[in-house]
Amino acid sequence: MTLPLYGTASLSTGFQTDRARSVLRLQSVDSNSERHAADFALVKTGEEFGRAVEANWPSIFIVSDGSIPGPVSEALECRVVTVPQKYDYLRDGDVLGFDHSSKKFRTLFRKNSAHNSLLVTERCNNYCLMCSQPPKDVDDRWLLDEIKESLALIDPNTHALTFTGGETLSDWEDFIEVLKECRDRLPRTAVQVLTNGRAFADSRVVDAWRDIAHPKLMAAIPLYASVDHLHDHVVQAKGAFDETVLGILKLKDRRQRVEIRVVLHALTAPMIAETCRWIARNLPFVDHVALMGLENTGFAIANDAMLWIDPVDYRDALALAVDHLTAAGVNVSVYNLPKCVLARSVWPHALQSISDWKNGFVDECNRCDEKPDCSGFFTTGRPRFSRGIHAITA
Amino acid sequence: MARFLAPEAFSAATEDLSLLPFNLERTGTNQYLVANMVGDFIRLTEDELNRLVDLRIRPGDGLYEKAYAAHLITGTNQTAQRQLLAARLRSRMSFLRQVTPLHIFVVTLRCEHSCPYCQVSRQSTDRSRFDMSEETAMRALDIAFASPSGRIKIEFQGGEPLLNFPMIRTIVEAAKARSGKKVDFVIASNLALLDDTVLDFCKANNILLSTSLDGPADLHNKNRPRPGGNSHKLAVAGIRAAREVLGPDRVGALMTTTEASLDRVDEIIDQYLQLGLDGIFLRPLSPFGFAVKTKQFQKYDANKWLNFYERGLRRVLEINRQGTPFREFYAALILTRMLSDRPIGYVDLRSPAGVGLGALVYNYDGSVFASDEGRMLAEAGDNAFRLGHVDHDTYKSLVLSDKLIDAVSSSLTQCAPECSTCVYESHCGADPVYHHATQGDALGIKPLSAFCARQKGIMGLLLDILENSPKDAAILRRWANA
């Protein structure tokens, strides 16, 4: 199943024209909690709509294909947004970004999901061959403003939050301010920042990062090889390896938490044992290493001929890679790969890592004993399946 | 795909490359073992080595990738390669931050055993002459507490230290009454005199026991004679009692290899397994004390010992493959050096040497030595490592004495002939006392040194297993971080 996180409202009224966008938070019609200016009553039936009006909700968010009232009249001095029925997954506590003129909206935060990620920018100084979020050279600094607004609306009990890009540190000074907001508003939330780490080669950036002092902040940094030009080729940026490794060293020198991420494809998977032996030897002090199956979307589709490798063809190399890391005391996890293509020794490290809104299984999985503990597959892009997929039965 | 650049676009030009320091050793007609600055190994052919040295390499040729991952080359304008080496070297050498963490108190030289290999030349009689006095002990404590380490270990040695148990009590209580340091205690004893009083005291004060166990009864008793011929029985009973009362991890045993041990390594290991111990330390005889006088030391050479060691190590690996975790502790120590950058200050395997900087020894008579072996030499009349006396020296005067500085500075493996260019240098150590004892020179001529031969032999063996025996390699990798 894939949840639609982007869409266009069928109707919207009552928004002022002095600003282009708003951040909305959905609340139950009957909510007694203090109303924030961004709060909208979440309405899915006519009956709920009536109650919302009765309760004097100044803002109403309707999920319906149109059968719910027309009473959306000019007379009603309310902000009203109506979105189609397929966005029925929205719940109270969810936060959306809404563009007034185009009526386009994006689901920014889902309260009942463990996989919330906020897009910081689409700009990036890498151009990875398999990028699932191909970079665009656009002025999208409004995204950071929207995030700042959203942070005030996100449930402070949220377990985890990810910032993604683009390169999240493209406007590092502004982004560091956002992370300080997280420290103040979401101190109990594990905050993970996906970054290529190159900005940390600059001591000013890494010092500012340290000074945020969020207790659960982690930089998740991709590293694809133990050799400069091999990494640089994957990320399509000469000099990236040197900056990324230096960035990791500087972060750890300042006792900051670091995860190394390796995406597995035909350029990285065949040498994954050597890469992990190198990590175990040179960077054993990182907090976590994630070895990640490829999400076949974005540039990965364009570069399919260069990147596709059946996971069963690197099964043994991956097992050796995991062994090198565990023997050195490094925490290692394997993401996005179903158990049937992994060596048994790797199973304890294989996590259900695929975000709930883009996670699925194939028919074969219904006969498999391991399905409840398996990552399954991405449903996004153009999924490719291993010839090794098979039900595991006792 | 026009938007994406081909691999060649990311290749460095040869003129932008620099060599980083490395050591090498020829291992075959066309084979070299090469180690980078922090002791990561790779193997190169002669042709590869020549191309590397001339920088006739380029990305994509295989050699470039091998050399780059092993930190043998760097882009001239890059910083990460050098910073990684610097960080790792700093970690490896950071044992130097713990200055003199070990203080050995020889509370008596008397012993009820009469081992022909005794390295300390024990005495059998005359309590007054060979026991440490309280006055000496308290002065020694003053010195120990003046050392810079925040945490120190006090080890009681002999002779048989339990023959002067009252002095152990006095020292433990006095040390605990002092403030400013965390103190761990160890008693090195043959356990023949272990009783409930001693065990209760050890339990109450969290004291570790370290003992000797040479193998099966007949071998052990032959190596370690005592009246009644029951050394083995008492040692085994002592180990069992200590494990029960103090806990399984509160008593350790060491074996010493004599000529009679050479063909019996499996039985020796089985003895340790039977007792439930989690490993064994296969240890050669040292050239000190009675071991020299009784010519025990000369009865086997480094090669014979290495054969013994290899058979033992392979037996230990077999035990692990069969499902019982069991380690050979010397291999574990070397592997920690070879596969990690954790600082290892093991006194016999570091450079700068551990003499004085790693340990000080307070002899029963108040003289202070730079190492346990140093006082063994003195018992045989050689005062080369006698640094002074508790009555007229301070921690500073001992550690800054010319004798110690000479011994440490003249034995640095980082600059010693043969050592400084040795492919194993990162994982080895300076042993000035051994080389003084065997060659009359703290530095020593390494090709003549059995210490050197054993070190190279063991490291070569471990490398061979790591490279060529995947199952055993997986076991060994775990020893490095246990």
UniProtKB/TrEMBL annotation, chain B:
<protein>
    <submittedName>
        <fullName>His-Xaa-Ser system radical SAM maturase HxsB</fullName>
    </submittedName>
</protein>
<dbReference type="Pfam" id="PF04055">
    <property type="entry name" value="Radical_SAM"/>
</dbReference>
<dbReference type="InterPro" id="IPR013785">
    <property type="entry name" value="Aldolase_TIM"/>
</dbReference>
<dbReference type="GO" id="GO:0051536">
    <property type="term" value="F:iron-sulfur cluster binding"/>
</dbReference>
<dbReference type="GO" id="GO:0046872">
    <property type="term" value="F:metal ion binding"/>
</dbReference>
<feature type="domain" description="Radical SAM core">
    <location>
        <begin position="94"/>
        <end position="327"/>
    </location>
</feature>
<keyword id="KW-0408">Iron</keyword>
<dbReference type="InterPro" id="IPR006638">
    <property type="entry name" value="Elp3/MiaA/NifB-like_rSAM"/>
</dbReference>
<dbReference type="InterPro" id="IPR024023">
    <property type="entry name" value="rSAM_paired_HxsB"/>
</dbReference>
<dbReference type="InterPro" id="IPR058240">
    <property type="entry name" value="rSAM_sf"/>
</dbReference>
<dbReference type="InterPro" id="IPR023867">
    <property type="entry name" value="Sulphatase_maturase_rSAM"/>
</dbReference>
<comment type="similarity">
    <text>Belongs to the radical SAM superfamily. Anaerobic sulfatase-maturating enzyme family.</text>
</comment>
<keyword id="KW-0411">Iron-sulfur</keyword>
<keyword id="KW-0949">S-adenosyl-L-methionine</keyword>
<keyword id="KW-0479">Metal-binding</keyword>
<dbReference type="InterPro" id="IPR007197">
    <property type="entry name" value="rSAM"/>
</dbReference>
<dbReference type="GO" id="GO:0016491">
    <property type="term" value="F:oxidoreductase activity"/>
</dbReference>
